Amino acid sequence: MKKSEKSEISKEFARLRNFGFDVYNFNDYRPMYGGKRDFVDHVLVSKKYHIYIEVKIGEDKLTDGQKRLAEKISHLSTTNPSIHYRLVRTLKEAKSLVNLLLAKKL
């Protein structure tokens, strides 16, 4: 796992605070930190969007619990267009997502 790339991705999402987003970072390298096993790494909230983001770098894979959560959030998004789930694998993808959010084109 590339901690530095995950850190850069977290910093990219944190930039959204300057634009009125609430940014919650649940990314932690310790297993079962705070009882949040299988929860997403980031939650971004604005007046228009609620985005749940899982970050997987390199060979990292989703756990079964993360897959179930992704399915549930994705299902919610079918009836509520402001709710989104995203799997981010690179800093480039994170920057692209931030740009879409700032342009209100998600």
Account of the protein in words:
It is a single chain. The chain has about 110 residues and is α+β, with helices and mostly antiparallel strands. It has one domain: 3-Layer(aba) Sandwich (Trna Endonuclease, Chain: A, domain 1), CATH 3.40.1350. It has helices at about 5-15, 65-80, 90-100; strands at about 20-25, 40-45, 50-55, 85-90. Strand 3, helix 2 (about 65-80) and strand 4 (about 85-90) form a beta-alpha-beta unit. The radius of gyration is 13 Å and the shape is globular. The chain starts with a helix and ends with a helix. The model has no long low-confidence stretch (mean pLDDT about 90).
Features:
106 residues, alpha+beta, Trna Endonuclease, Chain: A, domain 1, 4-stranded mixed sheet, 3 helices
Alpha-carbon distance between the two ends: 28 Å
Question: Proportion of β residues?
Answer: 15-25%
Shape-level CATH architecture: 3-Layer(aba) Sandwich
In CATH, the topology is named Trna Endonuclease, Chain: A, domain 1
Sequence stretches where pLDDT stays below 50 over 5 or more residues: none
State the name of the first-level CATH class. Alpha Beta
> How would you write the strand order of the largest sheet?
1-2-3-4
Shape: globular
Summarize the amount of helix as a percent range: 25-40%
- The DSSP helix count reads 3
**Radius of gyration in whole Å, from Cα?**
13 Å
How many beta strands in the DSSP annotation? 4
Structural class: alpha+beta
Q: Write down the domain tally.
A: 1
Largest sheet: 4 strands, mixed
Task: List SSEs in N-to-C order.
Answer: HEEEHEH
